[in-house]
Amino acid sequence: MSNKFKQGLNTIEIPYEKSKIGVTEAKLEMRNFKRRWLFVIVTIIAASFALAIFAPNYFTNNHPENPVVRTIASSNSFDVTDTRRLVGWADNVFVGKVIKQDGTKSLDRAPETQFKVEVSDNVKGIFNGTVIVNQQGGFKRNELILIENDQLLHEGQSYLFVTKHLKEENWNTLVPVYGDILIANEEAKKELIKKYTKAYKNEIPFNMSKSLN
User: Fold this and answer.
1) In degrees to the nearest 10, what's the CA dihedral of 204, 208, 209, 213?
2) Which of 51, 85, 131, 181 has a 20 to 30 A CA-CA distance from 33?
3) What does pLDDT average to in each consecutive run of 10 residues of the chain (213 residues)?
4) Are 163 and 136 in contact (CB under 8 A)?
5) What share of the chain is helix, strand, coil (3-state, %, to 5)?
6) What is the CA radius of gyration of the chain?
7) What is residue 56's DSSP assignment?
8) Does residue 146 contact residue 152 with C-beta atoms inside 8 Å?
9) Is 98 exposed, middle or buried (0-12, 13-18, 19+ CB in 10 A)?
């Protein structure tokens, strides 16, 4: 490069104000970028707090201390007091011990509560190990909703269950009141198994077409 050309470059002056434009725009862009990310972070934190505060009061495993109890009536398409018809409707009849509550979900308007149950005896169908038993009813906000005043299952207690399998959820829904019979002791368990085994031998299968007439 010639000395004259170098001297020419050195004599070119960039106006002061124009030289600042690029730097100023970069700074403004960086500030806007930081502000956008700050807004996103604050929004996420606020949403997390809202979820932590309000979600547990809707369908929750954390039970309120003094819930308002609301009872809902149910209608049945067959006589649930007849054990032959009850067993005939069921997919599974078994004895099991409630291990723990496993979730709460609503398929309609009312909550439904799921429990992990350890199976000990089968009357109808074959279950091994643990299964999920679904009970209609549960906690919604500060309410305890019970179907036919059927109390929620208690952890550590054993019951005779009469259930229908719901494939979509992979759980077994019990019949309110008549499908979760609390077992007080070993003698009571033997009597219940005997009673429902006899009902199974003489079961009356559920007929959907007749129930709709």
Assistant:
1) 90
2) 51
3) 47 48 58 59 47 44 79 89 97 98 89 97 97 96 94 98 96 97 98 98 86 51
4) no
5) 35, 30, 30
6) 33
7) G
8) yes
9) buried
Distinct helix (H) and strand (E) counts, the chain: 5, 8
Tell if the pTM clears 0.85, that is, is over it. no
Helix (H) / strand (E) containing 207: none
Give the β-pairing of 68-72 and 143-147. parallel
For the chain, give the longest Cα–Cα distance. 115
Phi, psi of 185 (to 5 degrees): -155, 180
The full set of domain ranges for the chain reads: 1-57, 69-206
Angle, vertex CA 101, rays to CA 145 and CA 128, nearest 5:
125
- The answer to whether 136 and 72 are in contact (CB under 8 A) is no
Site of tokens 């609301």? 70
**Amino acid code (one letter) for 180:** D
In angstroms, rounded to a whole number, what is the distance separating the alpha carbons of residues 94 and 183?
12
Where do the DSSP E strands lie in the chain?
68-72, 92-105, 112-124, 130-140, 143-147, 158-166, 171-174, 180-182
69-206, which class in CATH? mainly beta
